[in-house]
Amino acid sequence: MFKTISNIMKVDDLRRRILFTLAVLIVYRIGAFIPVPNINTDVLSATDQQNADIFGMMNIFSGGALFQFSIFAMGIMPYITASIIVQLLSMDVVPILAQWAKEGEAGRKKSTQITRYGTVVLGMIQAFGMSIGFNNYFSGLVIDPSFTTYLMIAIVLTAGTAFLMWLGEQITENGIGNGISIIIFAGIVASFPSSSQQIYLKMFKDAGDALFFNIIKLVLLVVAILAIVVGVIFVQQGVRKIPVQYAKRVVGRKMYGGQSTHLPLKVNAAGVIPVIFASSLLYFPSTIAQFWRGNAVADWIMQHFTYQRPLGMVLFVLMIIGFTFFYTFVQFNPMQMADNMKKNGGYIPGVRPGKTTATYLTRVMTRITLSGAIFLSLISLLPVVLSNLADLPNSVRIGGTSLLIVVGVGLDTMKQIEGQLIKRHYKGFINK
User: Fold this and answer.
1) Of 395, 406, 296, nearest to 56 (Cα)?
2) Which of 96, 181, 257, 298 lies 20 to 30 A from 12 at CA?
């Protein structure tokens, strides 16, 4: 391990990228503790524990900035929501967006620009709603509440989200890994120390005669979590290899093709994106309904729109499966892949080139994607069940969403570093 770190530090470009990523994350963590003007943070600190189960997911994704009501209180969630909307509209709903989706890198830049504008608009709307709603729910949160005050708070929160979006893009371009995922990852990891402290207070301080039982319970929980992490890594690395044969062809005096290769199809090609999307959409109705507590409809939504309830579990699983298929087939177009293979003289043994190959690839991809989606659903819900059995505090319930994001982002980042090292002939993290 130390030799690998030494090899990383020897590569100027890789060292610069890693240090740049760390510097950006430091800026992100500093911003998480800078409060918004005209906010009485003592009101939140006095009530955050009893509301951790309600706003817990938003607080985790914002790296704890929500309960600080800092400039990054909204986190990167408006960007995620805007990305969902743009990608859904790109599926032949809005012709211009569908056209951009087919234009490669140039079209992707245009779609990214629309996503940025959408992030600012959604962020402004959410910031207004959050500042007014939180002030109604946490009485006395906003000092001197007025339209001017709410407007200033909304502008600051929106600017914070836009700045986070920019930081994420800078990490993607100049750092290591996907910037948005790295920021969410950093927010989740930052909550580990406080979560560990709360587990200690709940299970060990003043435990009395139950101390030994609590130790056994925690050890079993840790073993189960480690087993889940191993399962996540195993499936995330799983690949279905489809054999591809390229026919020989003569161009001038040279002969090309004739080799055998394979087409790698990942079991979980979508990664952790479907879980992030599904979590965002599932918690959105209950978060909004929270501001109308006492209303019969709002209370019903708050009670059932959580994956700790049967209805919320079913909706969560369905959204994960739907987003997994959607995101996978956005990245992998069987018809386009079949056409490219046909143009280059490639074919799958036993399968006709062209439309038949596209049908075959679609069938294989559908099967392995369904397996990956079911896996994501189980992993997202299983840690919640284990946390309930262990009777952990609501504010530190171990969500499968957090676990998947941490492991998935860690794997992707490791692969990027591994690729950089291999290009420069250094041995990386993975022993062959």
Assistant:
1) 395
2) 181
